[in-house]
């Protein structure tokens, strides 16, 4: 659970911990509840004990910044077509064997954190680059809780939105503070069995479902979900049916659900890529179980990537990968053909960022 690695870098005070009777301190940020002796780090690697307190070692430090399309997060109903300034730090509080960003999220080399930026600078640069939002992504923002919240506060001063791309593995009290500052979130629902979460992520499904339901029902944060489909692991008809029914029963028909394609990576190089037919099958199952906005991702599939009106069948937003084509949503956020209100956050006309990816070096700005 802990690593005897010297603590270097930022020593920003961390919140959500308490002292135990045996002299260790317990981190109360996520359901791992890491218990630390002096000089030790939690499983996430970035929260550590120093001088009888919790510190965050990555405050103000990033593994890099990049301007992305908002659809890459993925968010299909939140400011479509706009650009988002994306960044992450290092470390993670899950141990997913299939991690697609393992070089950053699993990094234990602080040299990975090559770019430095204060919360105020990130907000300023986002505005200067005409980014509509800032995304905490690549690794889970839960573990740099304090840094993400301070950035969100600065962004709101400039009307820049903030987006959390997260696995949702966080305790109730820090969760309430975190999502109070997030304008949108995509939560990874990695599978729909406790066995999957236990064996492949060292986590618990129930805690993630609790976070998803909390965000949808108790906050103003716009929510979308993503499930990475891994052949033979979480892609059976039974599991997809159970997942879809849970979303419908607990969240309703309008929460967008993305099924994305796995590619061999990290500790699962022996698993083949997800066939496009699996994504199409998953989308069909979810829609048969009442979900109205279901998407395929990481593949070229205009039908599965586009937004369709569930009332009249009209195409609302045409997409192929991250490029937008059709746009048939009026200024009030309704279908231009039949007038049905479409859930999401829209601004009249879509942005025109497209599929571009532009690395940004904040330390030079």
Q: How many strands, which pairing sense, and closed or not: the largest β-sheet?
A: 9 strands, mixed
Could you name the ranges where pLDDT drops below 50 across 5 or more consecutive residues? 1-8
Order of helices and strands: EEEEEEEEEHEHEHEHEHHEHEHEHEEEE
Strand content: 15-25%
Annotation field: number of helices:
9
| Name of the CATH superfamily of the largest domain | Aldolase class I
| Spatial strand arrangement across the major sheet | 16-15-14-13-12-11-9-8-20
Envelope shape: globular
- Supply the CATH class of the largest domain: Alpha Beta
Could you give the distance between the termini?
A: 38 Å
Count of DSSP E strands? 20
What structural class results from the helix and strand content? alpha/beta
Architecture per CATH nomenclature, i.e. the level-2 architecture of the largest domain: Alpha-Beta Barrel
Count of spatially separate domains: 2
Say what the CATH topology of the largest domain is.
TIM Barrel
- Write down the Rg: 20 Å
Helix content: 10-25%
Rounded mean pLDDT score: 92
Written overview of the protein:
With 365 residues, this protein is an alpha/beta fold. The chain has two domains: 12-56, no CATH class; 61-360, TIM Barrel. It has helices at 102-105, 119-128, 145-157, 172-180, 194-201, 205-218, 237-251, 276-288, 302-305, and strands at residues 12-13, 17-19, 25-27, 35-36, 47-49, 54-56, 61-62, 64-69, 83-88, 115-116, 133-136, 161-166, 184-188, 222-229, 257-261, 294-297, 307-308, 315-320, 323-327, 358-360. Helix 8 (276-288) links the parallel strand 15 and strand 16. Helix 2 crosses helix 3 (145-157) and helix 7 packs across helix 8 (276-288). The chain is globular, with a radius of gyration of 20 Å.
């Amino acid at each position: 659970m802990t690593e005897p690695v010297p603590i270097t870098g930022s020593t920003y005070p961390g919140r959500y911990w308490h002292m135990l009777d045996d002299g260790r301190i317990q981190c109360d940020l996520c359901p791992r509840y890491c218990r630390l002796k002096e000089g030790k780090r939690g499983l996430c690697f970035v929260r550590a004990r120093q001088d009888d307190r919790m510190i965050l070692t990555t405050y103000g430090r990033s593994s890099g910044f990049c301007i992305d399309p908002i659809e890459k997060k993925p968010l299909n109903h939140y400011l479509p077509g706009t650009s988002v300034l994306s960044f992450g730090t290092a470390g993670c509080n899950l141990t997913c064997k299939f991690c697609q960003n393992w070089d950053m999220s699993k990094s234990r080399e602080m040299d990975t954190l090559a770019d430095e930026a204060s919360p105020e600078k990130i907000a300023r640069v986002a505005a200067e680059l005409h980014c509509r939002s800032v995304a905490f992504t690549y690794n889970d923002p839960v573990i740099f809780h304090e840094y993400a919240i301070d950035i969100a506060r600065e962004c709101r001063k400039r009307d820049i939105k903030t987006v959390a791309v997260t696995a949702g593995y966080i305790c109730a009290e820090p969760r309430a503070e975190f999502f109070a500052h997030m304008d949108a979130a995509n939560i990874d629902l990695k599978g729909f069995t406790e066995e999957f979460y236990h064996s492949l992520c060292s986590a618990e499904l129930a805690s993630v479902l609790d976070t998803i339901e909390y965000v949808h029902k108790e906050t103003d944060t716009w929510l979308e979900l993503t499930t990475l489909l891994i052949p033979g692991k979480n892609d059976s008809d039974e599991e997809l049916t159970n997942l879809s029914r849970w979303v419908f029963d607990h969240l309703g028909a309008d929460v967008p659900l993305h099924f994305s394609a796995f590619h061999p990576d990290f500790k699962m190089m022996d698993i083949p890529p997800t066939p496009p037919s699996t994504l199409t099958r998953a989308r069909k199952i979810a829609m048969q179980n009442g979900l109205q906005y279901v998407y395929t991702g990481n593949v070229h599939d205009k039908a599965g990537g586009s937004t369709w009106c569930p009332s009249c069948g009209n195409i609302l937003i045409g997409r192929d990968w991250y490029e937008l084509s059709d746009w048939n949503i009026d200024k009030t956020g309704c279908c231009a053909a039949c007038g049905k209100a479409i859930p999401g956050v829209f601004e009249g006309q879509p942005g025109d960022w497209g599929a571009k990816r532009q690395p940004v070096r904040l330390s030079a700005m």
